[in-house]
């Protein structure tokens, strides 16, 4: 039997993740059946689960990939920029439904909560580092603890995701993000 190259395996894994992202976004975790995953990826269940232990492992890998992408933007430009990007280019954020599903599963699934907390550390660390740099540079309020700022920004992000995912991304959301950004800036 011929050996499959690492490039081929990586391409196949990417194909599966891309299809699964669309499937989870459209149908939610429960509605993304194995049959639907097969249809959207164009692959058999054997091919899919050769790369991922099970549907939960696939969903976690997808959520982790999305968190890594967000962490990269957060590290460079901040969490508010992630939110601005979501407003400006919602078609590039097909993981919004995935983010809602993560929130639901965090509330209802203790095993998922444990797995996710290990995988989401990268995004939290990027946010903490970015806020620390901004505080050191004198750009952020120093009268609010960093963990409170993170909680506030996470709350705004979750609300924005819910708003966009439900089709209610009104024109004033950019102004709302201006207000959020202003509220965390240092006042001279």
UniProtKB/TrEMBL annotation:
Under InterPro entries, the record lists: DNA-bd_HTH_TetR-type_CS (IPR023772), Homeodomain-like_sf (IPR009057), HTH-type_TetR-like_transc_reg (IPR050109), HTH_TetR (IPR001647), Tet_transcr_reg_TetR-rel_C_sf (IPR036271)
Ranges annotated as DNA-binding: 33-52
The protein's name: TetR/AcrR family transcriptional regulator
Q: In its keyword annotation, does this UniProt entry include DNA-binding?
A: yes
Give any Pfam family that matches.
TetR_N
For the keyword Metal-binding, the answer is no
Ranges where the HTH tetR-type domain occurs: 10-70
Which PROSITE patterns does the record associate with it?
Answer: HTH_TETR_1, HTH_TETR_2
Q: Which organism is it from?
A: Rhodococcus tibetensis
- For this UniProt record, give its keywords in alphabetical order, as a comma-separated list: DNA-binding
Q: Which domain of life is it from?
A: Bacteria
């Amino acid at each position: 039997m011929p050996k499959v190259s690492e490039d081929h395996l990586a391409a196949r894994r990417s194909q599966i993740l891309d299809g699964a992202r669309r499937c989870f976004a459209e149908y939610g975790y429960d509605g993304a059946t194995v049959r639907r995953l097969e249809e959207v990826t164009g692959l058999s269940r054997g091919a899919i689960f050769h790369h991922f232990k099970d549907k939960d492992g696939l969903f976690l890998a997808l959520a982790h990939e999305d968190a890594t992408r967000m962490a990269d933007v957060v590290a460079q430009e901040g969490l508010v920029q992630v939110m601005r990007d979501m407003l400006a280019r919602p078609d590039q954020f097909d993981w919004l439904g995935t983010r809602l599903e993560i929130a639901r599963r965090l509330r209802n699934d203790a095993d998922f909560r444990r797995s996710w907390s290990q995988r989401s550390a990268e995004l939290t660390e990027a946010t903490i580092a970015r806020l620390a740099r901004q505080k050191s540079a004198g750009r952020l309020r120093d009268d609010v603890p960093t963990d409170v700022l993170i909680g506030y920004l996470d709350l705004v992000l979750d609300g924005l995701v819910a708003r966009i995912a439900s089709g209610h991304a009104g024109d004033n959301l950019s102004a709302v993000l201006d207000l959020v950004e202003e509220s965390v800036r240092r006042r001279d």
